[in-house]
User: Which sequence fits this backbone?
């Protein structure tokens, strides 16, 4: 505890403590400084740092229990941090009266309580005006105008007179977002506000979020879906067990290393060739210790090995590959799964050195798989190596060899011989099934 | 409409009893208080109207209104349709206070109401203190502590009743609730407390609406939740305390009235609170009319009537709105 306290003291001294509420009306700049939150016994947030500027969309990502919601709660004024300070325009959030804070900051929770289901949509959205209405005061025409606008922005105006209970979950959540907008906040906090909605509505809502940000509202959103976060956030914070382990642009945060560290799984991170959007695919990966003791060798080429390697690794098998060129997709996949590999330089014929390394891997393997690859003079040695595997060889044949032979018939002849002597599968799934049942 | 019903109920309540006093006579007796009029009534009738039935009717009106409004506040605060004004142990606290002084032989009206009031307020505050987690109180802990404390006080009451002997009858009567002891002095104490309590709760009608969307959501919409809880708990404990002190434990009014009224007004507390106050008042006036005229020459504790009428009606309500009860 001692270092925490010292840290806080140092930070507190740096912050001019202003009388709460009197300075409201600033641009809406949120600062989270050295914040620790504890639930009864667990350390939910550790030394969180964050500065949010107006117009920024910040995504909080991380696995369940990583502290995303805790951070949102701490910022929104309902979970006072034990250590550190959260300020809004340089005033401690916990010194600001709830009503004043609600004029600046709105929160959309993950799900809504069912106890106010008898209210109409308009009544609920009008509730968003209450921080702007004086004690014992009544709604002004301006309050109704703002409410109407919020209903239209979230596309729920057509339900205005319906009861909340009659709406679907997605419509209901849009009403709650409308209520938050009716507060006319400078900061909008979304706590996995779209996690229960259909993808179409998610996108609609985040498009709206982008428009709000363009108008100067700062948005802090806890987002479960990494792709959604990558697509709509200017900045991401990656949390793991209460620690912010990465903070920066989407490119900086969503790396394979970070994702592996936070989620304990591997991910394929790619930029979509057309939209330039990030795409993250989480993969179940067995760590090398968990893989089978016996090995399977795959003879890849031209990207045809990748699906086979992927499928076999996913089954928990210990896979090796070779010979493969470094510019081949199959090489990327092999690298990604961190499997043993006989590698050759791009566009080069297989050297004898690499060939013998490959043969070594084939000897070590319990089963050797020959996928539906093409043959040319450069990789003919791979076919010869396959022949040496003899009865350990299984073939995946999706298209006839004639269409894949770019040698003057040599590959066809050799392949024909092999085909006679070993098992041939026409579907990957069946091949994987066979291999998995024969390798321990 | 409710106001008209209220006026009619008051008149009937004053007219009905072992001696029937026609409404014209009541009007004349009351007019005479302000402007002297021709005597068409006997002195006894004037005493019955002015010193017995009228304070009793007012007391029923006030206590019914107070309990109903307290029930509205508690149901919103706890977001629990089963919450009632006694949920924090006010009734058993008051019961214990009253039982304690009665068993000590201090049966007089000077001792019982203050003791009951103190018991109600102390019980409520104890429950609130027990429910604190750090700077906040937990709603579910409030409910559980309320149940625990009620059980404890009930056991103590049972013990006191067991050893009370001859005072037992009075204690039982008090615990079942009744309005027979109503006097103008009591009305004078009850009136300001329940009026102010109702006004305070009504002033927070908007906040109570927001509370229905959850404590955190309410705070995000600008409600100072912890303050609101304190204000409402103090207010409710005073309202319930004074009601219990003079009329004993009248059940069911605080539970069913908010539910019934909600079916007409909807969930908005700005309408729900005043309507509940009126309806609660009317209901208790009628329950009292039945309580004192059902068995000729005798009167029942009004709590029996409210429970007898309330429970089946409540069951009907639950059954007919079983899809969304709140």
Assistant:
């Amino acid at each position: 505890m001692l270092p925490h306290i010292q840290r806080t003291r140092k930070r507190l001294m740096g912050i001019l403590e202003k009388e709460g509420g009197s300075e409201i009306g600033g641009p809406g700049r949120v600062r989270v400084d050295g914040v620790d939150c504890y639930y009864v016994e667990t350390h939910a947030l550790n030394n969180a740092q964050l500065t949010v500027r107006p117009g920024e969309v910040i995504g909080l990502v991380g696995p369940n229990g990583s502290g995303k919601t805790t951070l949102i709660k701490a910022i929104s004024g309902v979970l006072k941090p034990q250590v550190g300070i959260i300020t809004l325009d340089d005033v401690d959030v916990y010194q600001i009266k709830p009503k004043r804070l609600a004029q600046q900051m709105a929160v959309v929770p993950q799900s809504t309580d069912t106890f106010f289901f008898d209210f109409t949509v308009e009544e609920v959205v009008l509730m968003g005006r209450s921080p702007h209405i004086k004690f014992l005061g009544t709604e002004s025409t301006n309050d109704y105008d703002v409410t109407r606008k919020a209903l239209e922005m979230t596309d729920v105006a057509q339900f205005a007179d319906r009861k909340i209970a009659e709406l679907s979950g997605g419509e209901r959540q849009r009403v709650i977002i409308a209520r938050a907008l009716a507060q006319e906040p400078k900061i909008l906090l979304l706590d996995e506000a779209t996690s229960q909605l259909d993808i179409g509505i998610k996108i609609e809502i985040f498009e709206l979020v982008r428009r709000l940000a363009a108008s100067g509202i700062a948005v802090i959103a806890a987002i479960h879906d990494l792709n959604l976060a990558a697509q709509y956030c200017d900045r991401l914070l990656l949390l793991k067990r209460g620690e912010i382990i990465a903070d920066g642009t989407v490119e900086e945060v969503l790396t394979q290393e970070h994702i592996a560290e936070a989620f304990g799984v591997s991910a394929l991170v790619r930029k979509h060739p057309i939209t330039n959007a990030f795409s993250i695919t989480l993969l179940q990966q067995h760590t090398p210790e968990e893989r089978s003791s016996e090995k399977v060798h795959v003879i890849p080429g031209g990207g045809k090995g990748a699906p086979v390697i992927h499928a076999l690794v996913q089954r928990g098998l210990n896979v090796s590959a070779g010979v493969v060129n470094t510019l081949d997709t199959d090489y990327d996949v092999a690298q990604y799964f961190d499997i043993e590999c006989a590698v050759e330089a791009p566009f080069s014929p297989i050297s004898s050195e690499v060939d013998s390394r490959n043969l070594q891997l084939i000897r070590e393997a319990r089963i050797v798989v020959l996928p539906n690859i093409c043959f040319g003079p450069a990789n003919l040695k791979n076919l010869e190596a396959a022949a040496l595997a003899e009865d350990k060889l299984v073939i995946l044949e999706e298209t006839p060899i004639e269409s894949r032979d770019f040698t003057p018939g040599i590959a066809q002849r050799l392949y024909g011989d092999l085909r006679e002597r070993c098992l041939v599968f026409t579907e990957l799934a069946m091949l994987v099934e066979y291999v998995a049942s024969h390798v321990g | 409409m409710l106001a008209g019903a209220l006026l009619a109920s008051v008149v009937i309540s004053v007219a009905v009893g072992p001696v029937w006093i026609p409404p014209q006579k009541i009007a004349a007796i009351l007019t005479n208080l302000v402007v002297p009029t021709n005597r068409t009534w006997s002195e006894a009738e004037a005493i019955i109207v002015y010193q017995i039935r009228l304070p009793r009717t007012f007391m029923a009106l006030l206590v019914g209104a107070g309990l109903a409004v307290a029930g509205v506040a508690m149901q919103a605060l706890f977001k629990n349709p089963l919450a009632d004004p006694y949920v924090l142990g006010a009734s058993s606290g008051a019961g214990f206070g009253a039982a304690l002084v009665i068993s000590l032989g201090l049966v007089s009206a000077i001792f019982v109401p203050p003791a009951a009031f103190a018991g109600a307020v102390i019980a409520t505050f104890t429950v609130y203190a027990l429910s604190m987690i750090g700077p906040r109180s937990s709603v579910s802990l409030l409910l559980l502590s309320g149940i625990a404390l009620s059980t404890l006080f009930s056991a103590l009451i049972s013990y006191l009743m067991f050893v009370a002997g001859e005072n037992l009858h009075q204690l039982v009567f008090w615990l079942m609730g009744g309005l027979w002891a109503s006097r103008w002095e009591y009305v004078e104490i009850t009136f300001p407390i329940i009026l102010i309590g109702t006004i305070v709760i009504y002033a927070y009608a908007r906040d109570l609406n927001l509370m229905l969307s959850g404590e955190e959501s309410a705070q995000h919409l600008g409600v100072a939740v912890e303050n609101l809880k304190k204000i409402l708990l103090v207010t409710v404990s005073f309202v319930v305390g004074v009601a219990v002190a003079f009329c004993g434990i009248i059940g069911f009014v605080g539970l069913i009235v908010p539910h019934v009224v909600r079916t007409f007004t909807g969930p908005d507390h700005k309408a729900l609170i005043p309507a509940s106050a009126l309806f609660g008042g009317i209901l208790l006036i009628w329950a009292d009319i039945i309580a004192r005229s059902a068995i000729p020459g005798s009167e029942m504790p009004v709590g029996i009537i409210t429970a007898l009428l309330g429970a089946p009606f409540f069951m009907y309500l639950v059954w007919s709105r079983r899809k969304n009860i709140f």
